Amino acid sequence: MRAVTFQAPNEVRVEERPEPELLASDDAIVRIEASGICGSDLHIYHGRVQIAPGFTIGHEFVGTVAAAGEGVTRVSEGDRVLGCFHTACGTCFFCLRGDYHKCDEMRTFGHGAVLGNLPGTQAELALVPRANLTLRRVPEGLSDEVALFAGDVMGTGFHAVSAAGVQPGDSVAVLGLGPVGLCAVQVAVAAGASPVIAIDSVPARLEMARRFGAVAVHLTEEQPREVVKDLTAKRGVDVAIDAVGHPDALDLAIRLARKAGTVNAIGVYIEPQKVHMGLVWIKALTLKSGHANVIGHVDRVLGMLAAGTLDPTPLVSAHMPLDDAPEAYRLYDRREALKIVLTP
Ligand SMILES: [Zn+2]
Ligand SMILES: [Zn+2]
């Protein structure tokens, strides 16, 4: 089968790989029909994540169950399914508390030996361990490209909002309007937050956030702190979401949040960063972080996608054949696309 593999920084290749086989009774094998390229794939592409040359990458997927072990009870052969970007055991300390994203045995698709040595899903077939937890049936009528969002990007947007405890009527600022930020805007609006203030410096992304119901604010051509003051009786927002993963965004989020408000840093951090802890302390902020608990959220997210309450369709900027993955990565790296869907 064909698979997209990491070779070296800024180089991926489409290579022949052996077909996966069922190894455990709760494994499934999925014939991939669509796989997305994600911002975290770019960390791999740039060589910031340690991964062996020749390893299959990708972690967003929709497809059909081609085979399932006898322990797989929640999906069966022939079912159209979507996957979450990582697996969880369901029985460890963290899983029993619902913190599937911190499972002791979690394995992330397409992230090399460090994150569980699980080959990725930008391929014709993928082995899916813990299929009862990792896979969901795609609701009737939902397209591949929309379902694809449930197991990662929209799940992360959902987590950004729900983990921050957003209530109807809360004011929310979203910093960074990449796919996760734009999804967070949709979830915040759907959760009844108002106003939702969306901050970025790319006009097309600001326009999309405006269409999703946000007040769009240009990071440098406007003054986000002044706009937030004007819209919140000078208090600051109840919740500020850093969907960038850069200390400048985190610093602005801390400044935009009101006293006793919440900041959720959902963007990816790898290195140590400076945080103005004095400001966090004096404002009595709650600071949350970490990647999303997508397995915990996926059923709610699917329900909202099926109802049309959330609709990431405008984020899909390109469909490309799997064989064009090298070109797709170059395009995505140039920030010329929000979401590229690869089809084998
Ligand atoms: Zn991802
Ligand atoms: Zn677990």
Q: Name the helicity range.
A: 25-40%
Mean pLDDT across all amino acids: 96
Overall radius of gyration:
20 Å
Strand tally: 15
Largest sheet: 7 strands, mixed
SSE order, one letter for each helix or strand = EEEHEEHEHEHHEHEHEHEHEHEHEHE
Give the strand content. Answer: 25-35%
Uncertain spans: none
Q: Please tell me what the overall shape is.
A: globular
Helices, by number, come to 12
Ligands present: zinc ion
Structural class: alpha/beta
Give the CA-CA distance, first to last residue: 10 Å
Notable characteristics:
344 residues, globular, 7-stranded mixed beta sheet, alpha/beta, 12 helices, binds zinc ion, 6-stranded parallel beta sheet
Protein model, in words:
The chain is globular, with a radius of gyration of 20 Å. By secondary structure, it is of the alpha/beta class. Helix content is 28%, strand content 25%. The chain has helices spanning 39-45, 93-96, 131-134, 144-147, 153-162, 179-190, 203-211, 224-231, 247-256, 277-282, 294-307, 325-333, and strands at 2-8, 11-16, 28-37, 60-68, 80-83, 125-128, 135-137, 172-175, 196-200, 215-218, 237-242, 257-265, 286-289, 316-321, 339-343. The strands form three sheets. Strands 3, 4, 5, 6, 7, 14 and 15 form a seven-stranded mixed sheet that branches. The model has no long low-confidence stretch (mean pLDDT 96). The protein starts with a strand and ends with a strand. The chain contains twelve helices and 15 strands. Helix 5 (153-162) packs across helix 6 and helix 5 crosses helix 11 (294-307). The protein binds zinc ion (2 copies). The site of one zinc ion (ZN) has 6 residues, from loops. One zinc ion (ZN) binds next to loops.
